[in-house]
Design goal:
The complex is a heterodimer of chains A (about 80) and B (about 375). Chain A has about 80 residues and is an alpha+beta fold. In chain A, about 30% of the residues lie in helices and about 25% in strands. Chain A is built from two helices and four strands. Chain A has helices at about 10-25, 55-60, and strands at about 5-10, 30, 45-50, 70-75. A four-stranded antiparallel β-sheet of chain A has the order 2-3-1-4. Chain A is globular and about 30 Å long. The N and C termini of chain A lie close together (about 5 Å). Chain B is an alpha/beta fold and about 375 residues long. In chain B, the strands form three sheets. In chain B, strands 2-8-7-6-5-3-4 form a seven-stranded mixed β-sheet, sandwiched between helices. Chain B has a four-stranded antiparallel β-sheet with strand order 9-10-13-12, with helices on one face. The longest helix of chain B is centred in the N-terminal third of the chain and has 20 residues, at about 35-55. Chain B is globular, with a radius of gyration of 21 Å. The relative contact order of chain B is 0.17. The chains are: A alpha+beta (about 80), B alpha/beta (about 375). The interface of A and B includes residues 11, 16, 31, 41 and 43 of A.
Chain lengths: ~80, ~375
C-alpha cells in the first residue's frame, strides 16, 4: 500500500498536523522523512495511507495548516 | 515542617507531577532530534504540555507557548525582544529585579508607576500620566512577590489597548491562581511565568506566551532539530525561541501540574489561598508589635503576605521560625523597587506565601510559634 508523507518543518508542526488529522479520524504515524524527500534537512512528517490523502489535505486546509510538502512513498 | 515559601517555589506538588518526571527520566529522549520511539515520546510529552498550557490561558495557537528555564528567562526574552532604542518603558512600583535589571542593563529609560500599596486606582492614574510622558511599553507585575498586591490588569489593559501600547505581564505569582484569559486582554504582547510555582511543575521550567508577532529576536540561537541545513535561526514558532534540548522530564511534570489546576479550577485554588491568607493576617495582627501588610479588600491581594517588627530583624525572625520547622523568606525578595514603594527598604520584610496544599492547622501553628518566638525574645 502506498503511503503519503505530510512533511513539516519541525517536530512541533508535525505533532500539530498529527493532532489535526487525528481529530478528523485520520490515523497517522510520526516519522522522520528520508533525506531526499525533505524540502530541507532535519524535518518531521506524518505518514498516512494514500487512500486518506485527499481527506487529510482537506482537513489541513480547513484548519489553515500548510505543510512543507506532501510526498508519496512507494512500499 | 510548615512550608510557607510557595512564592519562591512550591515544594509540595500533586503526586502526578513526581510520577511524570520520574517516568520521563527513564523514557523520554531528545525531543525534536531523532525518529525513534523515546525521542518521539519526548516530543509528544512536550506537545501535550503546550496544549495544556494553551487551554489554561485560552490561547488558540499552542505554538505560541514557549518553554523557558524559569520566569526570569521568559521576562528577559520578552524585554530584550520588545525594547527598541526609542522605547520608554513603564513599570509598576512593585517589579522584580528580573524586570528592572534587564532594563537597566539595556540602558532603557523607564517610568515607575508610583502608587500606594494595594491601590489599583492610583496605579491606573499613574499609568495615564506615564502615557502622557511618552511610555510606549508597559511591564506589569500581576501579583507582587513581596506583598501579594494584585495589579488592576483589566483596567490597565483597557487603557493600553485604547493607546495601542503593548504590555508584558509578569505572571510569576499569578499563573495558576488568578484566571488569565489572554483572549480578553488585547494589549498583552507576552505573558511570562515560572513552571515551578503555582503551576506546580518542577524547577527548571518556565513559560513565555508569545502573543505578539513583534517578539522576534531570541536570546539564544542554536540547534532546534528543524531546517538544520539553514544556518539561520528558524523564524517560526516555537523553534525560533527554543534552541537546545528542552527539559522533557521537567515539561512532563509541568503538564501534570497544569492538568491538576484545570481539574481543581483556579477559582477553587484562589478561594482556598485567600482564606488561609486572611487567617494568617488575623493571627499575625494578634501578636502586638507586628506590622502586617494586608489589603482591606481581599481581592487586592493573593498568595503572599509580608510582615515586620521594629524590634526584631526580619532575617532573625525567619531564622527563628526555620529552627521550629517553619519555612518563610526574609529580606528584599529580589524586589528592592517594591520595598521602596511600600517604605520597607531599610528593614525588609518576612514573607509568608501559602499554596493550595497548606492547611488552616498550619496557619494556627505558625501563629502560635511566631507569638512564642516574640515572647521569648522580649
Amino acid at each position: 500500500m502506498h503511503k503519503a508523507l505530510i512533511v513539516c518543518r519541525s517536530q512541533t508542526e508535525a505533532f500539530a498536523a498529527y493532532r489535526l488529522l487525528e481529530g478528523a479520524g485520520i490515523r497517522g504515524a510520526m516519522t522522520r522523512p528520508p533525506r531526499q524527500d525533505r524540502t530541507s534537512s532535519c524535518s518531521y512528517a506524518v505518514r498516512i495511507d494514500c487512500s486518506e490523502l485527499d481527506a487529510a489535505q482537506r482537513r489541513l486546509q480547513e484548519k489553515n495548516f500548510v505543510p512543507c510538502k506532501v510526498h508519496i512513498l512507494e512500499d | 515542617m510548615i512550608y510557607f515559601d510557595n512564592a519562591a517555589t512550591t515544594l509540595v506538588k500533586p503526586k502526578q507531577v513526581y510520577w511524570a518526571v520520574s517516568a520521563a527520566m527513564r523514557t523520554a529522549a531528545g525531543a525534536g532530534r531523532s525518529g525513534h520511539r523515546p525521542a518521539m515520546h519526548a516530543g509528544q510529552l512536550i506537545y501535550d504540555c503546550r496544549e495544556a498550557v494553551a487551554r489554561l490561558f485560552r490561547l488558540d495557537d499552542c505554538t505560541r507557548v514557549i518553554f523557558t528555564y524559569n520566569a526570569t528567562y521568559a521576562l528577559n526574552l520578552a524585554i530584550h525582544a520588545l525594547c527598541r532604542t526609542d522605547t520608554c518603558a513603564a513599570v509598576t512600583g512593585y517589579e522584580h529585579n528580573s524586570v528592572v535589571r534587564p532594563l537597566t542593563e539595556r540602558g532603557t529609560e523607564y517610568i515607575v508607576l508610583e502608587s500606594p500599596l494595594f491601590d489599583g486606582a492610583a496605579m491606573v492614574t499613574a499609568a495615564e500620566k506615564a502615557i502622557g510622558l511618552g511610555a510606549n511599553l508597559f511591564i506589569v507585575n500581576h501579583v507582587s512577590n513581596v506583598f501579594g498586591a494584585v495589579a488592576p490588569l483589566a483596567a490597565l489593559d483597557a487603557l493600553l489597548t485604547a493607546h495601542g501600547i503593548p504590555m508584558i505581564l509578569d505572571a510569576s505569582q499569578s499563573a495558576g491562581i488568578l484566571d488569565i484569559d489572554v483572549s480578553r486582554y488585547t494589549s498583552l504582547a507576552a505573558v511570562c511565568m515560572p513552571g515551578h510555582k503555582a503551576l506546580y511543575g518542577p524547577q527548571g521550567t518556565g513559560v513565555l506566551l508569545a502573543l505578539s508577532d513583534e517578539l522576534r529576536a531570541p536570546l539564544l540561537q542554536g540547534g532546534t532539530g528543524s531546517v538544520s541545513s539553514d544556518i539561520r535561526q528558524p523564524d517560526f514558532l516555537p523553534d525560533r525561541f527554543e534552541s537546545g534540548t528542552l527539559n522533557a522530564p521537567g515539561i512532563a511534570g509541568l503538564a501534570e501540574g497544569v492538568r491538576f489546576i484545570l481539574r481543581v479550577e483556579q477559582d477553587t485554588i484562589l478561594r482556598r489561598e485567600r482564606k488561609l491568607l486572611h487567617a494568617l493576617a488575623q493571627g499575625l495582627r494578634g501578636v502586638p508589635g507586628t506590622e502586617v501588610f494586608a489589603a482591606d479588600d481581599e481581592r487586592a491581594q493573593c498568595g503572599v503576605l509580608s510582615f515586620r517588627r521594629a524590634d526584631f530583624a526580619c532575617e532573625g525572625l525567619a531564622e527563628a521560625l526555620a529552627a521550629r520547622g517553619i519555612c518563610v523568606r526574609a529580606g528584599l525578595h529580589c524586589s528592592p523597587l517594591a520595598h521602596r514603594s511600600a517604605g520597607t527598604l531599610a528593614s525588609g520584610t518576612v514573607r509568608a506565601s501559602v499554596g493550595y496544599f497548606n492547611t488552616m492547622g498550619e496557619v494556627e501553628r505558625f501563629t502560635q510559634e511566631y507569638a512564642d518566638i516574640v515572647k521569648k525574645k522580649l
